[in-house]
Design goal:
- The protein is α/β, with parallel strands linked by helices and 341 residues long.
- Among the domains are: 44 residues, lambda repressor-like DNA-binding domains (434 Repressor (Amino-terminal Domain), Orthogonal Bundle); 146 residues, 3-Layer(aba) Sandwich (Rossmann fold), CATH 3.40.50.
- The chain is 43% helix and 16% strand.
- Helix 5 crosses helix 13 and helix 10 packs across helix 11.
- The longest helix has 18 residues.
- The radius of gyration is 24 Å and the shape is elongated.
Length: 341
């Protein structure tokens, strides 16, 4: 059944132009009028022809998010924030996942006239050449980390890990920890990830009596529970002296806790541990995880807003979010700990 805009306008008691503006976004429409139009459209079963609109104005109101690991709970929260914000502006969002397929999506994005892309990908899963190709064809791009190199046309949204690591190390040193190690999913050479450098600088500022030990991952990079578990076992086998551990994310921290438990060590009685991201699981795990809240939903929402501003104004945006430390049960004074060595 084909329902016309005129029928929707009549039921909503608005002009036909107002119905068009509600769906095109070309002009401001009050929330009250927008609600009336949407209600009338739903009652009548009206669906705007976005294909026809896109042919006329060359705007598809379609976005894509490229994701390396769609199963990661932190990423899922980011996507939730992005989709919610995009929906409010009438954009349709395609989620394209899987590290093996990221590069293959580029031509489809260009050929389908996707207006903007949000990259939530692990380092190495997408080349600058592919990003530049999308930009050359008019696709707007927002990236979610400090890439080693990127086209100046990209918008960026970053977490201030220097501020975050300062809060983590200040918390641990305030409890009395001096032997703090870091489990990194990346290598030290991966300049796009700022967590290692931020950890070293915060450690140097708060604990000046030793050089921190860092256990690094290797390509292909993973940051899941299995990775944290295996890395923690490797550290224990090396007889490294430590009383506290900081991990690249909460999933790795949970895996590390399981490895410690397997070796007969308790958290936080023997070892304190801190994660990053504040995924929902971190609050309900035992012990509840002390973690750096990187505000996942806000990251997603602001990534969309930055992309949207880039689309409508042709101006790119650099956005930096400061995280907050959430202290829970996985950290305690080392006075009750025995130093692991």
């Amino acid at each position: 059944m084909n329902v016309s805009r005129e029928e929707v306008a009549k039921l909503a008691d608005v002009s036909v132009a107002t119905v068009s503006y509600v769906y095109s976004g070309k002009r401001y429409v009050s929330d009250e009028l927008r609600s009336r139009v949407k209600d009338a459209a739903q009652q009548l079963g009206y669906y705007p022809d976005f294909i026809a609109q896109s042919m006329a104005n060359k705007k598809t109101k379609t976005l894509a998010v490229l994701v390396s690991d769609v199963a990661n709970p932190f990423i899922m929260q980011v996507l939730k924030g992005f989709q919610k914000a995009a929906n409010k502006k009438g954009f349709f969002v395609n989620i394209c996942g899987g590290e093996k397929y990221i590069e293959s999506y580029v031509e489809a994005i260009i050929s389908r006239r996707v207006e903007g892309v949000y990259l939530v990908v692990m380092a190495g899963d997408m080349t600058n050449r592919s990003i530049n190709k999308m930009l050359d064809y008019g696709v707007r791009v927002v990236i979610n980390s400090d890439w080693e190199e990127h086209d100046a046309r990209c918008s960026c949204i970053n977490t201030d890990y220097y501020d975050g690591m300062e809060k983590i190390i200040a918390h641990l040193s305030g409890l009395g920890h001096k032997e703090i190690i870091y489990l990194s999913c990346f290598t030290k050479e991966m300049q796009s990830d700022k967590r290692i450098d931020a950890f070293i600088k915060a450690h140097s500022k708060n604990i000046c009596n030793n050089i921190p030990y860092i256990e690094c991952g290797e390509p292909p990079y993973k940051s899941d529970m299995q990775t944290g578990y295996e890395m923690m076992l490797r550290v224990l086998d090396k007889n490294i002296a430590f009383t506290a551990v900081v991990c690249s994310n909460d999933l790795m921290a949970i895996g590390a806790i399981n490895a410690l438990n397997e070796r007969g060590l308790k958290v936080p009685e023997d070892i304190s541990i801190v994660g990053i991201d504040n995924i929902e699981m971190s609050r309900f795990y035992k012990p509840a995880l002390t973690t750096l809240n990187t505000k996942s939903e806000e990251i997603g929402a602001r990534a969309f807003e930055n992309l949207y501003m880039n689309i409508i104004t042709d101006k790119n945006v650099l956005d930096i979010l400061k995280p907050e430390l959430i202290v829970r049960d996985s950290t305690a004074s080392p006075s009750a700990n025995h130093n692991i060595n």
